[in-house]
Write a structure and sequence with these properties.
Elements (H helix, E strand, L loop, with lengths): L1 H38 L5 H24 L2 H25 L3 H16 L3 E7 L6 E7 L7 H6 L1 H10 L3 E3 L2 H5 L7 E11 L2 E11 L7 H59 L8 H32 L7 E4 H18 L3 E6 L5 E4 L1 H17 L6 E9 L2 E8 L20 H6 L7 H11 L3 E7 L3 E9 L4
Parallel strand pairs: 7-9
Antiparallel strand pairs: 1-2, 1-5, 3-4, 4-5, 6-8, 9-10, 10-12, 11-12
Helix pairs in contact: 1-2, 3-4, 3-8, 4-8, 8-9, 9-13, 10-11, 11-13
């Protein structure tokens, strides 16, 4: 059948080429006749002009017709359409990590570009080895139930052999018991390196024969779809891993708080002499226990805050919050601590309405952690400057200090959990390495962004960008 199709295409190409020769001959003859006619001096000038225009118009029409129907032009148009399809597929793939959206958009693009009756994408379950429905476009699943079941073996054949499958007259020849609205199909496996992901199947309508060259187009689009599916799978795995991690952090934090509270309570009872006088050596040892217990309690508290913030992300219900008011309250709270370290702390509010939609607790954790860090790592006599201003449709919270700064090589890691810069460990033995991780999680929870600029020994500036609440 493929041989007959190629023979027909060759015949059409030959006929068109012959027509091209005929047109050229007509043009040449016309030019000769035109020259003869124009050489006759008694012909009126208007008639000459009409004759020239008529012949020119005829040549333009014939040339335009043959050009549009030229096999080469058709190839160029088809290639341009395919290139456009690739661009759309890549754009769709880059726009989402949701698996169902990827499958639906890919199937729609394939149906449109290939000009077929429908398209279905099935995914291979790596555990059971069975094909599971991903999406179907252009064909009603209810009316096509028998047909889709009939081609299940072709899906399996395509994924197991890793080779495309093309079948013409499928329901009349291969499945005579089935009488459906499609006639031909192409099945192309979806794979990424050595991993089978599933298969794409396109259905040709009654009377539509699918050409073998469609396999190349479908395979190329399949590569883009495969990569997108793999990314979606990894995204789902990361979400599950993140949820598991959050659950563990919550449970571990809760389980650790009770015994830690007991240790702290007993240590303080002993240090205060409620159970009798202690020797100097005993006081020193119990003081160490109390200090370490306090440090561990701080870590557990930060872990709990971080885990609770992540756990509440899916159930996050924002409300209107006056960020300027919240900032002023927290700056006032930290004033005494700054004065104790002889640090000059100033706030500049350069915006009238600093309302944002969010969680008051989440926004407070951003402010308190940043101010606390600034005070902690700024030497005595230093300065902390807080600015709140507007930039387009966002409010910007900026906090700068004249502290120890962050080494340039370590700045990319400052938002990682449990990470502390090398000079921060030297400046202060206490610290969990969770404060900035909490800040970043809270900022992302509010659809904001955070960046940092720092020079070791000179200070650090953090900037938070949050969307303004619309009036």
């Amino acid at each position: 059948m493929a041989v007959n199709r190629k023979r027909d295409e060759s015949l059409k190409a030959g006929i068109l080429n012959l027509l091209w020769l005929v047109v050229l001959s007509i043009c040449l003859v016309g030019l000769v006749v035109l020259c003869k006619v124009l050489s006759v001096s008694h012909i009126h000038i208007v008639f000459r002009a009409l004759l020239i225009l008529s012949l020119s118009f005829l040549i333009i029409l014939l040339t335009n017709f043959l050009f549009k129907n030229s096999p080469r032009v058709k190839i160029y148009r088809r290639q341009a359409g395919q290139f456009h399809a690739f661009c759309r597929a890549i754009k769709q793939a880059a726009g989402t990590l949701e698996l169902q959206e990827i499958l639906d958009s890919a199937a729609k693009i394939i149906v449109e570009v290939a000009g077929v009756r429908g398209c279905s994408i099935k995914l291979l379950d790596s555990k059971s080895g069975e094909m599971k429905a991903g999406t179907i476009v252009g064909i009603e699943p209810e009316s096509m139930g028998v047909a889709l079941n009939a081609v299940e073996s072709l899906y399996q054949q395509g994924t197991s052999s890793r080779e495309p499958v093309i079948v013409q007259d499928i329901f009349m020849r291969d499945f005579p018991a089935v009488n459906e609205e499609v006639e031909s199909l192409i099945c192309v496996p979806l794979r990424l390196e050595d991993m089978n992901l599933g298969a794409i199947c396109i259905f040709g309508a009654r009377g539509q024969k699918l050409s073998a060259e469609m396999i190349s187009l479908l395979s190329s689009l399949g590569d883009v779809v495969s990569l997108s599916i793999a990314h979606a799978f990894m995204y789902e795995d990361l979400k599950i891993l993140g949820e598991t991690k959050t659950k563990f952090m919550l449970e571990a934090s809760h389980e650790l708080r009770s015994p830690l509270n007991s240790i702290q309570s007993i240590a303080r009872t002993l240090l205060e002499g409620h159970l009798g006088e202690l020797g100097e050596k005993q006081k020193e040892m119990i003081s160490r226990i109390d200090i370490r217990a306090n440090m561990l309690s701080e870590i557990v508290g930060d872990l709990l805050v971080l885990a609770m913030g992540r756990a509440e992300l899916s159930a996050f219900k924002p409300k209107r919050v006056d960020f300027a008011k919240l900032l002023q309250e927290n700056v006032k709270f930290f004033e005494n601590r700054a004065e104790e370290r002889e640090i000059d702390m100033e706030l500049y509010t350069l915006i009238q309405d600093a309302s944002v939609y969010g969680s008051e607790e989440g926004l407070r954790s951003i402010i308190t952690n940043l101010i606390s860090n600034a005070i902690k790592y700024t030497p005595r006599g230093g300065r902390i400057t807080l600015r709140l201003f507007e930039s387009k449709d966002q409010i910007v919270f900026e906090i700068s200090d004249t502290g120890i700064g962050i080494p340039k090589a370590e700045q990319e890691r400052v938002f990682r959990e449990f990470f502390r810069a090398s000079n921060a460990k030297t400046a202060s033995k206490t610290g969990t390495g969770l404060g900035l991780a909490i800040v970043k999680a809270a900022v992302e929870q509010h659809s904001g962004t955070i960046n940092v600029e720092s020079e070791e020994g000179k200070g650090t500036t953090f900037r938070i960008f949050l969307n303004k609440a619309k009036s």
